[in-house]
Amino acid sequence: MWTPETRAEHDRDDLRHPSDLTDAEWEILAPLLPPPAETGRKRFWEMRELMNAIFFGLRGGVP
Predict the structure, then answer these.
(1) pTM of the predicted model as reported, rounded to 2 decimal places
(2) Residues near 56 by Cβ (< 8 Å), separated by ≥ 6?
(3) DSSP letters spanning 2-62
(4) How far apart are CA 4 and CA 2, in angstroms?
(5) HSE-up of 61 (CA within 13 Å, CB side)?
(6) Which DSSP symbol is given to 63?
(7) Which long-range contacts (CB under 8 A, 24 or more apart) does 56-63 make?
(8) Which of these, 35, 10, 34, lies nearest to 22 by C-alpha position?
(9) What is the C-alpha radius of gyration for the chain, rounded to an integer number of angstroms?
């Protein structure tokens, strides 16, 4: 059951999209992703933004 405390804990109103990662979620996920390569082109997009895009597509189904 939703209580005022659980609603505040799971509130995603401050995010661009409801599927975006919170700071706490990103702290868990970030160490699992590969670091930037030392050779070649630098990353254009931050990994967090790429993960947000993937989760947006998964949540909405991308018709």
Answers:
(1) 0.76
(2) 17, 19, 20
(3) --HHHHHHT--TTSSSTTSPPHHHHHHHGGGSPPPPSSSPPPSS-HHHHHHHHHHHHHH--
(4) 7
(5) 1
(6) -
(7) 56/17, 56/19, 56/20, 58/19, 59/18, 59/19, 60/19
(8) 10
(9) 15
Per the structure block, which two tokens stand in for 35? 């670091």
Residue 5 and residue 42: Cα distance in Å, rounded? 42
pLDDT (tens digit, 0 to 9) for every residue of the chain, 63 residues total?
A: 889 998 888 788 888 888 889 889 999 999 999 999 899 999 899 999 999 999 888 887 766
